[in-house]
């Protein structure tokens, strides 16, 4: 660039010199004038080229400098950010260290306070000991009457001995005395564990393993009472009756408990001992799966929930039966228990305890080994003469009692309704439709008009409003005809289903079934995956290949009882009328 600039400058100076020289001739001037335009054009072009190249190089250099400056600035910014972060972390560490130092200082202060309190308590104890010694009669005698020197020495010795003896007692038995201080017991709160399928199955397996010894013991007792092994039961019966006759029943049971504990000790030490009348069945243990799919978890939770539901149901039945037995729910059953308690009370007052214990033990042995075997072999005898079995089986639970009361109320309502219909008439000025229009109308109009029935066909008492359900007609293939939502009614002779999708009161989608045409009626469970007994009723007729199902019924049991009772009435009426015809 510098060479080009110098060249341009040199050319410009030479042109000026030639123009200023006076010795130049006119021809030379004309020639120069002719030649100079071309030379000046070339020089201008070269100057322009040089200037453009210089500007491009200057721009490239400036761009490089700018890029280098930007990269340097970014690096400086990054270093500054790193330095700021390190400073922030260091400040956080300093704060933590200062907090720990402050905690240590507070702990030291608390320790010093506790030491001061202990010293104060020790001083108070010493003062109390001194005051007790001063209040003693020997100290009072010394303070009241000035004793002789010999007597004062003896009393001092006695007081020192008594004080040392008291200190020894307090140092030796003070901890035991402090244990008898009454303090309110504070139970630690139990942590609530979150619900998990793995934990649920593990708890169920633990419960099953914990109940296994109890179930094995119960199974061995039933095997003894049912004479599963004749020789074992015979030996046990002879030994029991011999010990009962001579009054060794309690020592025998204690000896059996000691033998069982000894065998358990040997089993825990690795000995293989099996002392069971019934051979134990080893169930295959499935290894727990760690990765379960959503469907497997759902099925697992349903299985556990079903088992828990059945277990809680059995426990509730037992507790409700015991409660109903003592609350005179069934007086004829509780009366037997009442008489038995009076007999036991009178016999315990009149008979000696040795004779009474002998009678009880001998009767228990005969009942366990002989009477139970006879009753289990002959069920009819058991239903007639086994008093505990009759009481327990006939005791109702609260649920059964509620169902019985509801059915009895419905029967009473039916009876009063029929008597009122026969004995009384509608008031003057009111027609039959006006008298019963409110009670016997559906959501789309009068009941007999919606289902094209006679006016005498009315819903039974208790189901005037119907039961909300969905009709599943498995003979139809189209989705609209397969499932219909609506309400189910029961009359004296028909089972009526009103579809909620029927337009303008049309009865095309409604369903009317004669009770006499029903061949089978039973409770139905639509989805077997869900726990419980289901929410559906299955009804089979000769006109359908597959039974129709009325599902999704909230009050399924109430509806089933009403339908089944009316169905049985219709069946009995038809069977009673068939021989006459």
Please supply descriptive tags for the structure shown above:
alpha+beta; seven-stranded antiparallel β-sheet; 67% helix; two-stranded antiparallel sheet; single chain; 581 residues
Report on the structure:
The protein has 581 residues and is of the alpha+beta class. It has 17 helices and nine strands. The chain has a seven-stranded antiparallel sheet. A two-stranded antiparallel ribbon has the order 1-2. Helix 10 packs across helix 11. It is flat, with a radius of gyration of 54 Å.
Q: Total strand count, please?
A: 9
Strands ordered across the widest β-sheet: 6-5-4-3-9-8-7
Radius of gyration over all CA atoms, rounded: 54 Å
Largest sheet: 7 strands, antiparallel
Unreliable residue runs:
8-38, 137-145, 418-439
Could you give a short description of this structure?
The protein has 581 residues and is of the alpha+beta class. The chain has helices at 2-20, 26-135, 137-144, 149-179, 197-225, 230-245, 249-268, 294-326, 331-350, 353-377, 379-385, 387-394, 398-423, 432-436, 447-450, 479-482, 556-580, and strands spanning 441-442, 445-446, 467-472, 483-490, 494-499, 511-514, 520-524, 536-540, 548-551.
How are the SSEs ordered, and which strands pair?
Layout: H1 2-20, H2 26-135, H3 137-144, H4 149-179, H5 197-225, H6 230-245, H7 249-268, H8 294-326, H9 331-350, H10 353-377, H11 379-385, H12 387-394, H13 398-423, H14 432-436, E1 441-442, E2 445-446, H15 447-450, E3 467-472, H16 479-482, E4 483-490, E5 494-499, E6 511-514, E7 520-524, E8 536-540, E9 548-551, H17 556-580
Antiparallel strand pairs: 1-2, 3-4, 3-9, 4-5, 5-6, 7-8, 8-9
